[in-house]
UniProtKB/TrEMBL annotation:
Protein name per UniProt: Orotate phosphoribosyltransferase
Pathways involved: Pyrimidine metabolism; UMP biosynthesis via de novo pathway; UMP from orotate: step 1/2
Annotated gene: pyrE
Domain Phosphoribosyltransferase, first and last residues per copy: 46-142
Source species: Thermobrachium celere DSM 8682
Protein family membership: Belongs to the purine/pyrimidine phosphoribosyltransferase family. PyrE subfamily.
Record text on subunit structure and interactions: Homodimer.
UniProt-listed Enzyme Commission number(s): 2.4.2.10
Coiled coil: none
Length: 182
């Protein structure tokens, strides 16, 4: 798996502000993998092998990073795939998408670090009466329990820092904000 991320130049080095608000010296730009359908299929298949026995009705991913991942998982499992998006800073289902009472939902993401976006999606699922069965992602960067089982193609430990204690900030290195959350 790591070779596909290297081949597609999806592992970036520098100073990054993550969607979680934390800083890091490395960033996984999964969009660089996902722009190649053949490589996306291979990486997602690794995740699908780990979740194929779960009882899933629908796959939902947060915009932006989870859209393609949710679609490809849904395609490989022959399940409905939808996405949430922020409206005035709040995660919502739009575009006629719905989760029905009692549906079993897999949340799909590109990268999970703190689980912030996934947990926002989980709240939407619960508000609709659905049940979250887990979180699937291409890259798992989590440290500790985020409340749901995480299934990934790749588990990596990359250093992250609180903005107040970030050594890169202390060195005066400006950060880049590559994620979709502005």
């Amino acid at each position: 798996m790591i070779n596909i991320f290297k081949e597609t130049e999806a592992i970036l080095e520098g100073h990054f502000l993550l969607s979680s608000g934390r800083h890091s010296n490395r960033y996984m730009q999964c969009a660089k993998v996902l722009m190649y359908p053949d490589k996306a299929e291979i990486v997602v298949k690794e995740v699908v092998e780990k979740i194929k026995d779960l009882d899933i009705d629908v796959v939902v991913g947060p915009a932006m990073g989870g859209i393609i991942v949710a679609y490809e998982i849904g395609r490989q499992l022959n399940k409905r795939a939808i996405f949430t998006e922020r409206e005035d800073g709040v995660m919502n289902l739009r575009r006629g998408f719905e989760i029905k009472e009692g549906e079993r939902v897999l949340i799909a993401e590109d990268v999970v670090t703190t689980g912030k976006s996934s947990l926002e999606v989980a709240e939407v699922v619960k508000e609709c009466g659905g049940e979250v069965v887990g979180i699937a992602c291409l890259v798992d960067r989590t440290v500790g329990d985020i409340g749901y089982k995480v299934f990934s193609a790749l588990k990596i430990d990359l250093e992250t820092y609180d903005p107040e204690s970030c050594p890169l900030c202390k060195e005066g290195i400006p950060y880049i904000k590559p994620g979709s959350r502005k």
